[in-house]
Amino acid sequence: MYTLIDGKATAAQIHAELSMEVQNRLNQGLRRPHLAAVLVGHDGASQTYVNNKILACERVGFRSTLIKRESTIREAELLELVRSLNHDQELDGFIVQLPLPGHINAERINEAIDPAKDVDGFHAINLGRMLLNLPGYLPATPAGVIELLRRYNIETEGKNCVILGRSHIVGSPLSVLLARSATPGNCTVTLCHSKTQNLMEHIQRADILVAALGKPGFVRGEWIKKGAVVVDVGTTRVPDASRASGYKLMGDVDFESVAPHCSAITPVPGGVGPMTISMLLRNTLDSANQRHYGG
Amino acid sequence: MYTLIDGKATAAQIHAELSMEVQNRLNQGLRRPHLAAVLVGHDGASQTYVNNKILACERVGFRSTLIKRESTIREAELLELVRSLNHDQELDGFIVQLPLPGHINAERINEAIDPAKDVDGFHAINLGRMLLNLPGYLPATPAGVIELLRRYNIETEGKNCVILGRSHIVGSPLSVLLARSATPGNCTVTLCHSKTQNLMEHIQRADILVAALGKPGFVRGEWIKKGAVVVDVGTTRVPDASRASGYKLMGDVDFESVAPHCSAITPVPGGVGPMTISMLLRNTLDSANQRHYGG
Questions:
Q1: Which residues contact B56 (CB under 8 A, 6 or more apart)?
Q2: Which of B66, B56, B65, B72 is nearest to B16 (CA)?
Q3: What total number of domains does chain A contain?
Q4: Is the pTM of this model over 0.90?
Q5: Which of B124, B190, B197 is opposite residue A132, by nearest beta carbon?
Q6: Which CATH number is B85's domain given?
Q7: pLDDT means over runs of 10, chain A (295 residues)
Q8: Is A68 annotated in the active site?
Q9: B161-205 pLDDT, tens per residue?
Q10: Which residues of B touch A180 (CB under 8 A)?
Q11: Is the CB of residue A108 less than 8 Å away from at least one CB of chain B?
């Protein structure tokens, strides 16, 4: 029988811990952690993501600020907004929700964010510090995967870990985190991607398999090593007329066929997904505590 | 029969190309590229490395400056020196030779270097930009490995690449470079290290094997897949009374037993070693040309 890695319950636990830490801050006369989110345009999914982040802030007692801009905003104006947020002493961290309109260079915006307020952990300097095993803000989704492994006491040292997908926000940073000398960590990591040949052979060797490709139901049970731990980062919206939202979330793993082979597995939804916001909040509180970058 | 990947000849070729580019700059009325090296203390190996870098500068027509400091220098003084080099308009790049004395925080020194002059490619922001597949200075030894693969037209796309060793200056960044979407690149990379179990099984699957452990003669012929490409980054000084220097350089690969199984292999010495300085010079010229960070 496999362990269901319950990201929703773990996230709720983390939120309870964060609430307590906020209360401790208030008792010490310190202000609430404060996160701002910049939303450009009216993309439905982006609005949902940002609203969920703002709601999560309220739930744990953070102050939050939602900053909306029209999709016609010029890059220079957005850069100016980023600079003003960098200098806002009342703000611990902020995110600029992606994707941005095509006329804006997202990389330039990302680089303009003060690394000390980069609670998404997307700035090059935070990724570089991760590679050097130095303190810094970790990208939220990879950090969420690490936190699930930690809280479920899953042994990682010396394990063969196979990661499917090399995106800049999940697969690539996670390959660094799981390979480096840390706990969780110390895995022998193989990073697979669209150019990988004989993908199945790699998957079959995995003690820990992380799927982050964005291909619904791609990973099949017959590929899974007996007793493997499977982490499903995929969250693709698939049309579903039977739901009020008109879609359902599907992971990269065919849960029904895969789960029986596993010692532990994350579901979709309710697995890695809820952890991403928790890690964003954690980063924001760390910033308020000046944990990585000092005062 | 295997191809001997001749790093010494390749480095000489690159130096000829660099000399020509310097000449072109001079013909356009531009100044010579200028590299400075900071040497703290009197460690013999460090002196040799720094001297070789200075000599290489002279050979390709770069201006060079050697800055020596006693090992008693305070960290604050060294930081001040770094800041003055950052602001020196006549200087394109500089390196601070490692190791530094124990009372100096090497990480703090590294962070103080202007990323635009970080021609060693060790600054977190350059490593993070590498992870994001953005232009920046690549660490010299991994860049040297990539350059050898490029110039010997070794196919990397879709190949299983196994890297032995996860150091911050070789194994970890090289795992990123070989996995990312680039040419050379697009390998399926497995990063092995001291915690890896069944190391031999990983090595046996390698189409491209990179050894960067610092264990002389560790890799044996019977582990090598037929036709593999083997890159030996190891350079350990082993005592040898028969030589004037008192030592010989040994790689991580037992060349005699490994070479017959290979399609291509780098020797030690004369393989990756000479490429490191070439890549340092390349980075310095790129800085003079304001290639990655603009004016």
A1: B15, B277, B278, B280, B281
A2: B56
A3: 2
A4: yes
A5: B124
A6: 3.40.50.10860
A7: 97 98 98 98 93 97 98 98 98 97 97 97 97 96 98 98 97 98 98 98 98 97 98 94 92 98 98 97 97 79
A8: no
A9: 999 999 999 999 999 999 999 999 999 999 999 999 999 999 999
A10: 166, 172
A11: no
Distance, in Å, from the CA atom of B245 to the CA atom of B293, rounded to the nearest integer, reads 41
Nearest by CB to residue B158, choosing from A158, A179, A195, is: A195
DSSP state of A260: G
Query: Does the beta carbon of B191 lie under 8 angstroms from any beta carbon of chain A?
Result: yes
Q: A72: exposed, middle or buried (C-beta count within 10 Å: 0-12, 13-18, 19+)?
A: exposed
Catalytic-labelled residue, pool B6, B92, B114, B120: B120
Residues 133-152 of chain B with CB under 8 A from chain A are 133-134, 136
Q: Do residue A84 and residue A191 come from a single domain?
A: no
**Inter-chain CB proximity B128 and A132 less than 8 Å:** no
Instruction: Looking at the structure, tell me whether residues B64 and B151 fall in a common domain.
Output: no
- Phi/psi of residue A72, nearest 5 degrees: -85, 0
Closest residue of chain A to B180, computed from CA coordinates: A166
* Residue B123 forms contact with A (CB below 8 Å): yes
Q: Which domain holds residue A152?
A: 140-273
